[in-house]
Amino acid sequence: MTAVITVTFEGDDYSFSPDLVLDYTASSTSRNVFHQILGGGQDVTLLPSEPRTGTLAMWFREEADAYQMEAIHGLPLLFTLSDDEYFSIGMQYAVDGRVTRTRNDDGTWSVAVDYREVQHS
């Protein structure tokens, strides 16, 4: 994957790319509402699913790059994820949970971000 994370800050776009995306997980939860009908049976109110949530795990050769990725995800910003190979992972997201930076045994670094997709209506 050649992922690019872009943020807009004070009117300017800034892009950051990990050396490698280690893991991308996404799930969404149904908002359908099921109703039991008196006398038997059921009905359902069909609604769109919730936006994606998950974890984006990235790998970096250099500590400074991992630190920068961790630091920008600590700011109150919306992020745009895009990938030139896997278009379906593209989204705008906000941090929703932990941002974890880890020093790996081989001296490289990884950063994991818990996210929630942001969909504008």
Describe this structure in words.
There is one protein chain. The protein is mainly β. It is 8% helix and 52% strand. It has 1 helix and 9 strands. The strands form 2 sheets. Strands 2-1-7-8-9-6-3 form a 7-stranded antiparallel β-sheet, with helices on one face.
Compact overview of the structure:
The protein is mostly beta strands.
Write a concise keyword list for the protein shown above.
single chain; 121 residues; mainly beta; seven-stranded antiparallel beta sheet; two-stranded antiparallel ribbon; 9 strands; 8% helix
Which helices and strands occur, and which strands form pairs?
Layout: E1 3-9, E2 12-16, E3 20-27, E4 33-36, E5 42-45, E6 53-60, H1 63-72, E7 79-83, E8 91-103, E9 109-117
Antiparallel strand pairs: 1-2, 1-7, 3-6, 4-5, 6-9, 7-8, 8-9
Give the overall silhouette.
elongated
Task: Tell me the number of helical segments per DSSP (H or I, 4 or more residues long).
Answer: 1
Run of helices and strands: EEEEEEHEEE
Major sheet size, sense and barrel closure: 7 strands, antiparallel
Mean pLDDT: 92
Helix content: under 10%
What are the segments in which pLDDT stays under 50 over at least 5 consecutive residues? none
Structural classification: mainly beta
Estimated share of beta-strand residues? over 45%
Based on CA atoms alone, the radius of gyration comes out at: 18 Å
Distance between the termini: 29 Å
Please provide the count of β strands.
Answer: 9
Strand order of the largest sheet: 2-1-7-8-9-6-3
Multimeric state of these chains?
single chain
